Amino acid sequence: MDVRRRSEKPVYPSKVFAADEKPLKPHKNQQQEDNNTLLIDASDALPLPLYLTNGLFFTMFFSVMYFLLSRWREKIRNSTPLHVVTLSELGAIVSLIASVIYLLGFFGIGFVQTFVSRGNNDSWDVEDENDEEFLLKEDSRCGPATTLGCAIPAPPARKIAPMAPPQPPMSMVEKPVPLITPASSEEDEEIIKSVVQGKIPSYSLESKLGDCKRAASIRKEVMQRITGKSLEGLPLEGFNYESILGQCCEMPIGYVQIPVGIAGPLLLNGKEFSVPMATTEGCLVASTNRGCKAIYASGGATCILLRDGMTRAPCVRFGTAKRAAELKFFVEDPIKFETLASVFNQSSRFARLQRIQCAIAGKNLYMRFVCSTGDAMGMNMVSKGVQNVLDYLQNEYPDMDVIGISGNFCSDKKPAAVNWIEGRGKSVVCEATITEDVVKKVLKTEVAALVELNMLKNLTGSAMAGALGGFNAHASNIVSALFIATGQDPAQNIESSHCITMMEAVNDGKDLHISVTMPSIEVGTVGGGTQLASQSACLNLLGVKGANREAPGSNARLLATVVAGSVLAGELSLMSAISAGQLVNSHMKYNRSITKASS
C-alpha cells in the first residue's frame, strides 16, 4: 500500500452518514478541472482564428519594439532624457505590454497547466483503494471508529488488487537481456560464467583450453550474453581455428562467408587463367568475365613486370640537420651500401636489399629501403632487415635517435605519390589490342566512343577530382575481389589499386589498344592468409600456391600479372557498358535479389 503524508483536512467529514451510506469521494481529476477553469486560454484574446491572432500579436510586438528602439536611439543622439515620453510612445508601450501578456499566456499556458497538474498529482494523500482501510487501521488503537459519537459499521471486506511494480523512467537505458544458449557441458558453462564475470580473460581461452574451436565457441556465447545480441547467423562450424592461431586473427568467434565467383578464361602471355573473385557486388564477376571474353577473342593480353621491391622507411633524428645529411651521404655511398646490404641480407635467405632512397626534413632523415622478398609479400621480412641496419648504424652514429621503424615514407596502406612514382611491391603494365569486330559484337560499343570516354572520364575527370593514382574506372573492385579470394592483405588494396588506364585507336582507327599501368601491386603466395584452406585453393586454381622452389619469387610475380590482367578485363567491360549506356540496366539485372524476401 502506498501511504503518503496525511492531508491537512480533517480525517473525518463533518457530515453524518447513514449506516448504509458511504461517504462520497471527489473524482480524482476534479481538483485538476477546477484549477484549469481558472486558466484563461490565450487564444481567446480576440474572436479570430488562432493563427490570425498569433500573427497579429507577433506583428504588433516586433513593430512596437522597432518603433521604441528607433525613438530611443534618436533621444540618445539628441541628448533627450529617456523618461520623457510622448503620447505616441505611451501608446506603443501599452501595445507592447499587451502583446507581451498575450505571448506569455500563449507559450506559458502549457507550462502553468503542467505545473498545476503536477501539484495535484503529487498531493500527499492515501491511495484511493486503500483509503478507508488505512484510516480504520490507524484508529483501531482507540476502539471502533466514530464520527461525532455515531458508530460507523466496518466496511465490507474488499479484495485489494495487487499493485503493479513501479515502471522505470523512459529515459533510462534498458540493459540488454542476456541471450543464453545452453553450453555443451557443465565445465563450459562454468568457463562462460567466469569470462562474463571477468575472472578469465577472453584472449587466454586458447592457451588455457588447448582447443581453439572450443575457445571460439565459448567466446561467441560470452559475447551473446554480455551484449544481449544474437550471433546466430555467424557460423562456427567448418573452419580450422588452429590455422589462424598466432598468425591471422585473435579472439575469433566465427567466420564471415563471402561468395567466390570465377571469371575467365583470361588469356595472358599465352596462358589461360580462371580468375577467382570473392565479392558481394553483383555484376562485378559477370562484367570482368565479359572483358576476359573480349581479350580472349582478340588474341589475349601481354603483361610485363617492371620492378619488384617491397619498402620500409624508418625515421631517425639528429641534433642538427648537418648530422642528418652526413648519414644520408653515408648510406648512399656505393661502397658503404655494400656493407649495409650485407647486414640487411642476413635477416632472411630471400631478402635482398636493392637500394636506399633518402629524404631530409630539417634534422630528421627518412631512409626508404627497397628489397626483394621472394614469394612473400614481404612486410615482415623487410622490417627485420631494416632493424639489423639500424642496429649497425647506431654504432657508427651514436647520436642517432630512432623515432620509428616506419616513418610513412614507405608508404603502406595509404595513397602516396612516392608509391605512384617509385613503385612498391610489383610494378606491372598490361596491354591488349581489341579488334573492331569484338568491340561491336561483344562489348556493344564503338572504338571512338571508348577512346573519348576514357580521355574525359579516366584522365580529365580524375585530374579534376585531384586523384592520386586513380586514373581508372574501377581497378580497386577487381583488386579487392582477388585479394580476398587469394588471402592477401585487403588494406593494401589502397596502393595496389593505383592504376592509369589508357585507350587509343590503332590500325587506322578500327581497333582499340588498351593498357593498364599499376606501379604498386603488393601480393604474395606464402604467409598471412594465403595458407588458409579456401584462399590456398584459389591460389592453387591459378597455379601459384606456395613458394616456387626452383625460381623463388616467380609465383608472387605471376600473381601480380594476373591481377593486372584481370583489371584490364574489368576496365574494358565497364567502360564499354558506360559508353553504350548499359551500366544502370546491367546493375538492375545482376545487382538485385530476385527472392521474394527482397522484393
From TrEMBL:
The keyword Secreted does not apply. It is an enzyme of class 1 (oxidoreductase). It is a multi-pass membrane protein. The chain crosses the membrane at residues 48-69, 90-112. GO terms for biological process: response to jasmonic acid; saponin biosynthetic process; triterpenoid biosynthetic process. Pathway: Metabolic intermediate biosynthesis; (R)-mevalonate biosynthesis; (R)-mevalonate from acetyl-CoA: step 3/3. Its main location: endoplasmic reticulum. GO terms for cellular component: endoplasmic reticulum membrane. Keywords: Endoplasmic reticulum, Glycoprotein, Isoprene biosynthesis, Membrane, NADP, Oxidoreductase, Transmembrane, Transmembrane helix. The keyword Transmembrane applies. It catalyses: (R)-mevalonate + 2 NADP(+) + CoA = (3S)-3-hydroxy-3-methylglutaryl-CoA + 2 NADPH + 2 H(+). CDD domains: HMG-CoA_reductase_classI (cd00643). Its EC number is 1.1.1.34. SUPFAM superfamilies: NAD-binding domain of HMG-CoA reductase (SSF55035), Substrate-binding domain of HMG-CoA reductase (SSF56542). It is found in: Endoplasmic reticulum membrane. GO terms for molecular function: hydroxymethylglutaryl-CoA reductase (NADPH) activity. InterPro entries: HMG_CoA_Rdtase, HMG_CoA_Rdtase_cat_sf, HMG_CoA_Rdtase_CS, HMG_CoA_Rdtase_eu_arc, HMG_CoA_Rdtase_N, HMG_CoA_Rdtase_NAD(P)-bd_sf, HMG_CoA_Rdtase_sub-bd_dom_sf. It holds the Pfam family HMG-CoA_red. Catalyzes the synthesis of mevalonate. The specific precursor of all isoprenoid compounds present in plants. PANTHER family: 3-HYDROXY-3-METHYLGLUTARYL-COENZYME A REDUCTASE (PTHR10572:SF24). Belongs to the HMG-CoA reductase family. This is 3-hydroxy-3-methylglutaryl coenzyme A reductase. It comes from Solanum stoloniferum.
